[in-house]
Amino acid sequence: AQSVTQLGSHVSVSEGALVLLRCNYSSSVPPYLFWYVQYPNQGLQLLLKYTSAATLVKGINGFEAEFKKSETSFHLTKPSAHMSDAAEYFCAVSRSGYSTLTFGKGTMLLVSP
Amino acid sequence: EAGVAQSPRYKIIEKRQSVAFWCNPISGHATLYWYQQILGQGPKLLIQFQNNGVVDDSQLPKDRFSAERLKGVDSTLKIQPAKLEDSAVYLCASTQGQVSNEQFFGPGTRLTVL
Predict the structure, then answer these.
(1) Does residue B35 register a pLDDT over 70?
(2) How far is CA A4 from CA A56, A105, B39, B111, B113, in A?
(3) The predicted structure's pLDDT at residue B101
(4) Contact yes or no for B23/B86 (Cβ under 8 A)
(5) A86, A110 Cβ separation under 8 angstroms
(6) A41 forms bridges with which residues in the sheet?
(7) DSSP class of residue A30?
(8) Would you call B101 and A100 a contact, using CB atoms and an 8 Å cutoff?
């Protein structure tokens, strides 16, 4: 079975500050890992994904994440937050070769001026 | 390229009533998913279709929920009768194939059961 734990239901940063959203996974097989973003009243949009290639993955809107097998982590970072980054972020895991996703509970990112 | 379409966007019903949601996936996408997203939680898979066949419905409450994808294109999800705890956003997603690992999501239908 696979699972995802996102630490912190809410994260608050100031505009221009570093964004760090934490995700730890549990998987009995090599995982595929994903970060999705959800803006109010919208569906989920893929930010980036790890599928066993490079461990540092770059995504859209300046976000990146690093797969660390020893720590079973896939934390999402962005060097400088923008007001437009305020949204809910979901980490998800799937098995290699399967598309079914298991999501974490989400982290709401709040950006203050 | 048109995205995943869902309707209605919002629905309010009373408990014990019936409701249906519709989803039209991206053209050519063989795999379709329905998720339930309760407030404060991540999406939970209800059912996965590959063309018009069910791949996984292990988390679908079959006593009240049903879904179909008769022609392998659009899909409907039905709840009959609805309970208060069914209040949630119902998301539809699609991918090109069963092993594709990028799902494209629709805007969702927000259901409120009173």
Answers:
(1) yes
(2) 19, 8, 18, 26, 29
(3) 65
(4) no
(5) yes
(6) none
(7) P
(8) no
* Nearest residue of A to residue B6, measured between CA atoms: A43
Tokens of A25: 């996974």
User: DSSP label at B82?
Assistant: -
Tokens of B61: 């409450």
Q: How far is B71 from chain A (nearest CA, A)?
A: 21
Average pLDDT, integer, range B83-104: 85
Residue B59 CB-half CA count within 13 A: 12
Q: What is the DSSP letter of A1?
A: -
Interface contact B57, partner A, CB < 8 A? no
Tokens of A26: 């549990």
Question: What average pLDDT is seen over chain A?
Answer: 92
> For position B100, what pLDDT does the model report?
52
How many angstroms separate the CA atoms of A29 and B110, rounded? 35
Confirm if A107 and A21 have CB atoms less than 8 A apart: yes
Encoded tokens for B102: 């990028």
Q: Which residues of A touch B45 (CB under 8 A)?
A: 100-102
A93: closest CA of chain B, how far (Å): 10
Q: Give A97 to chain B, closest Cα distance, Å.
A: 5
What is the distance between the alpha carbons of residues B36 and A96, in angstroms, rounded to a whole number? 23
Using a CB–CB cutoff of 8 Å, tell me whether A55 touches chain B. no
